TrEMBL record:
Domain spans labelled Aminotransferase class V: 51-286
Positions annotated to bind substrate: 351
Species the sequence originates in: Marinobacter psychrophilus
N6-(pyridoxal phosphate)lysine PTM positions: 206
Protein's name in the database: Serine--glyoxylate aminotransferase
Matching Gene3D superfamilies: Aspartate Aminotransferase, domain 1, Type I PLP-dependent aspartate aminotransferase-like (Major domain)
Transferase recorded as keyword: yes
Coiled-coil ranges per UniProt: none
Pfam families recorded: Aminotran_5
One GO-annotated biological process of the protein: glycine biosynthetic process, by transamination of glyoxylate
PANTHER family: ALANINE--GLYOXYLATE AMINOTRANSFERASE, AMINOTRANSFERASE CLASS V
Keyword annotations of the record: Aminotransferase, Pyridoxal phosphate, Transferase
Amino acid sequence: MLKLDFHPSGRHFLQIPGPSPVPDRILRAMSLPTIDHRGPEFGALGLELLAKVKVIFKTTQPVIIYPASGTGAWEAALINTMSTGDRVLMFETGHFATLWEKMALRLGLEPEFLGLPGYEGWRAGVQANMIEDRLRKDTGHTIKAVCVVHNETSTGVTSNIPAVRRAIDAAGHPALLLVDTISGLACADYQHDAWGVDVTISGSQKGLMLPPGISFNALSDNAIAASKTSNLPKSFWAWDEILEANKNGYWPYTPNTNLLYGLNEALDMLLEEGLEQVIARHQRWAVGVRTAVEAWGLEVQCQEPDVYSPVLTGVVMPEGVDADAVRRLIYERFDLSLGMGLGKSKGKMFRIGHLGDCNDLTLIAALGGCEAGLKLSGVNLKGSGVLAALEYFSQNRPHHVN
Ligand SMILES: *Cc1c(COP(=O)(O)O)cnc(C)c1O
């Protein structure tokens, strides 16, 4: 057991960008007895869930639900649509894009990893013009898919997906568009149908406010057509049997019953509030947190204001300060968890999650822990980020979207 300076009382501040805090209402829903997954009650729940989840993805097409973490749904998206040796165009936005590229390689695909030079790509979004240029050169259409991360959770950058769709169309290229919005869904605006996405991948433990353990593939007709000829080995992940069983609200195997109760509750919460409202709430928190970072005189990891993430903010440490040491101190002194720098950004920055079940004051508390921890670590702050954010939240009431 890690020893804290004090006996922790009250609630732990879980401000990492996923898993996000699970609301009591969802925890209570999940505590109901597990039922027969082949019984009539379950089929009704399954049908209700499969219909409601489409609203969140903004799609009228099928959404597959897997009892797996997001990584499983990444794999499912690739192996259901691609064949051995297929070329896939991916874009390096950060650690998660990098992991997905490694996975493609391990699955026997031929990923081509575009990106800005060095560390630049980890502070910017997907460059749609680079994708368009590459696709125009692929006159033989050997590239079968373009794979991008919508909200890069390692950096706090939310890429422009419609621009990627336009790039593919402008090049007149038939490649499928596969998008990871594991951390973007139900925080940032996301539109599977309107943006012309072929497979959207998402997960439970970020914007959906659930514990880890379920993940999603939202499909298109082109994706389903590709799955009929794709030759990569698949059984558990295969869409065909799942789609067949889903027609009656069931799964070919035992689904994650209690997590599905939680999902049902989460969908109700999001739909009662209204998706537009949910998105506006996250945007406002993100501005508040960036206001604090600016008041400290520190840099935000994302250098392109158009694509600041509404889900999380990466805070860059001044030269010579180890972000992991600062995070550890904050955890031990204030019982607050922050996201670590991953991959190329390890030790250089930490990440503040502002997603899901937060409110202005939980964020003020999180910023308070950061501010105190930065000072205790000897970081010279220009001013108080806590006061700046409090001022921002006080002066800017939540915007009600009708
Ligand atoms: C969390 C996350 C993943 C990985 O999901 P797991 O549930 O940890 O398997 C992949 N991509 C992004 C963008 C994520 O935020």
